[in-house]
Amino acid sequence: MKKMAAKFATSLVGIVFVILISSASGLVTPAEEHSIEDVTREGLDKLLDTKAFMAVYWYARNCKRSENILKDMELIDDDAKKSNIEFVKINDKRFGKSFGVKKFPALTFFRDREIYIFDGDLKDEEAVLDFITDEDNMAMPDKIEDVNAEQLISIVETDPFVTVFFYDESKISSKALEHMEDIDDETDAFHIRFLRINDAELADDYSLPRIPCLVFFRREIPIVYAGDMNDENEMLEWLIKNQSSADDDDVLESANGEQLEIMVENVDNLMIYFYDNTRMSTKILDVMETIDDDCDSMDVVFVAVKDKALAAKYNVDEFPTLMFFENQIPSVYDGELENPEEILAWIADLLTGADIEQVTNDILDKFISTKSYLAVVFFKEDDPNSAAALDILEEIDDDLDE
Question: Taking each helix axis from N to C terminus, what angle separates 171-189 and 232-244, rounded to the nearest 10 degrees?
Answer without folding.
Answer: 50
